[in-house]
Amino acid sequence: MPLTMYKLSVPAFIRGFSALGGLLDKAEAFASEKGMPLAELFEARLAPDMLPLAGQIQRASDTSKNAIGRLTTIETPRFPDEERSFAELRERIAKTVAFLETIRPGDLEGSENREVTLNFTKLKVTFTGEDYLLQFVLPNFYFHITTAYDILRHKGVPIGKADYIGGLG
Amino acid sequence: MPLTMYKLSVPAFIRGFSALGGLLDKAEAFASEKGMPLAELFEARLAPDMLPLAGQIQRASDTSKNAIGRLTTIETPRFPDEERSFAELRERIAKTVAFLETIRPGDLEGSENREVTLNFTKLKVTFTGEDYLLQFVLPNFYFHITTAYDILRHKGVPIGKADYIGGLG
Fold first, then answer.
1. The pTM is what?
2. Is the CB of A165 less than 8 angstroms away from the CB of B5?
3. How far apart (Å, rounded) are the C-alpha atoms in residues B108 and B85?
4. Which of A99, A112, B83, B104 has a 20 to 30 A CA-CA distance from B156?
């Protein structure tokens, strides 16, 4: 079976969200055991001007669904970043995964050659679909899953590498 | 041009190390400006039982070169984790990149079907080369680059997402 744009994206995203779900489970158990308000983990961040846990999950969601939107002509759902609780973060993850599960391998056929343009504040970057996925989407997606992990680890939640890679593997 | 195991690995690793090099530059400039001993950044970590900055770089190095070793019959260099300074971390990065630059696309031809077995303390996992790269190597590689970034960001080094993704892009 050849490598495909589908294999590199949708299953990887779904595995990432499965890992995230497991991290949230352990975070909730930890907070409950320590009598720590869940809001303390929800809003935890590694630097004052970095996104908190909730933001990392929202960006992982957007990175994955927007990648599909840019690599295909499929309309992607909009999620307005209004989550206020762990339950709502889980709902955001579930809605993202539900969308990803509608994607079929054929939907991404030929997307390696599709032109993708990103408009940043200061510059505009045009990629082939393949470069966009390999050089932008995957590094960004894993950035947000890892940073969610790092935030929880920094707050003392007893998680280990297997909770990150196990969910991904 | 079809997607290949080479495209998914070697160039992504080299971009990651280029991003890491840029992060070290900014970390050194920050330490010098603040009169902070470089050792404070070298040994910084996000949790007492997590690897420090140096360890994240050593693991990124091993993840990339060992992936090539497991996906081919090429002998990989051994680097004994003896780095004690920023200069030595840069040397570790340079040696890793020098090895990666010797790899040709043809070296990884057919590696998607190669059987790769990993022996962990508690279990043994066998992957196809493709699953090993997509489900283990890439998530792990980006984990260590991101955590190096997160450690420096947590210590106050003025870096931003572009320093991560820019080096990768």
1. 0.97
2. no
3. 34
4. B83
